[in-house]
Amino acid sequence: MIKCSECGYENMDGLDYCDGCGAKLAAGAGSSAAAPAAPAPEAAPAAEGTNSAPAAGGEASAAGEAPQSEAPTGEIKPEPAPAAEPAPATAAAGAPFKAKLSVVRGGRKGQEFPLEDGKNLIGRWDPETGSFPEVDLDADDPEAKISRKHALILIENGKITIEDIGSLNGTYVNRQPRLSPGSPAEIKSGDEVIIGKTFLKLVVEPIS
Questions:
Q1: In what helix (H) or strand (E) does residue 32 lie, and over which residues does it extend?
Q2: Whose C-alpha in 1, 54, 152, 190 is 20 to 30 A from the C-alpha of 73?
Q3: CA-to-CA dists, residue 20 to 9, 29, 66, 132, angstroms
C-alpha cells in the first residue's frame, strides 16, 4: 500500500496519483517502506588459532620484537651449578722443624751452625770468589783438611740428606764408610757427621 502524504489515503501499490485527492504519490514510497532493511554486514570471523587483539604485556610489541617464551606452569627449571669453592691455601713451604750442626770435637766445641730449608754448603771461606758456605768451618780447620766446597746438606720435604761433593778427605756419617761423591745419605737427629778432622752432631728440634 502507498499512503498519500497529502490526505493520508492508502492507495494500491503501483499508482502514481492518490485515488483520494489526486495528489502525486511519492515514487517508490510503498516499496521502500515495505522492503526490509538490509542487514548490516557481519565482521569476518577471525582465523582459527589467532587472537584478534594482542594480550597486554605478554605479546610482541608493534616494532616486531619476538615474544619472550615462558616456562609452562609446573616445569622445574634447572638450578645453576654452585660456584666452585676456592681451594684452601696451602701451608707455607718449609720443614716442620729446626735443624743445626753442633761442633763436638776437633774445633770450637759447642759452636752451632743453623741449617736452612734447601741447600746448605759445608766447607770453608773461599778468598778467590769471596763466597761463604752456610756451614763455614774455616775457623775449626787449622790443618786445612776441609775442602772449600766439601759437602752439601739438603733439607727438603721434611727429610735431611748429606752428600759429598768431591772433597779431598771425604765425608763420614756415624763412622761408617766414606760417602761416595754424588750419592746422598739420609741423616736424622743425633747422627754424627765427620768433615776432615771436625766432628759435628745433627740436632733437630720440632717447631711448636
A1: helix 29-34
A2: 54
A3: 6, 17, 75, 152
Q: In what order do the strands lie in the sheet with 112-115?
A: 112-115, 97-105, 198-206, 192-195, 171-173
| Spatial contact of 187 and 155, defined as CB atoms under 8 Å apart | no
d(CA 143, CA 148): 13
**pTM of this prediction?**
0.54
Q: By the 8 A CB rule, do 203 and 99 touch?
A: yes
Cell of 184: 746422598
pLDDT digits (tens, 9 = 90+) for 111-136: 999 999 999 999 998 888 878 999 99
Gap between the Cα atoms of 164 and 44, Å rounded: 106
> Which of 13-17, 28-32, 178-182, 195-199 shows the lowest mean pLDDT across its residues?
28-32
Q: What is the DSSP letter of 45?
A: P
Q: What is the DSSP string of 10-71?
A: EEPTT-SB-TTT-PBPPTTHHHHHHSPPPPPPPPPPPPTT--SSPPTTTS--TT-PPPPP-P
If residue 99 lies in a helix (H) or strand (E), which one and from where to where?
Answer: strand 97-105
Q: Which residue matches cell numbers 761416595?
A: 180
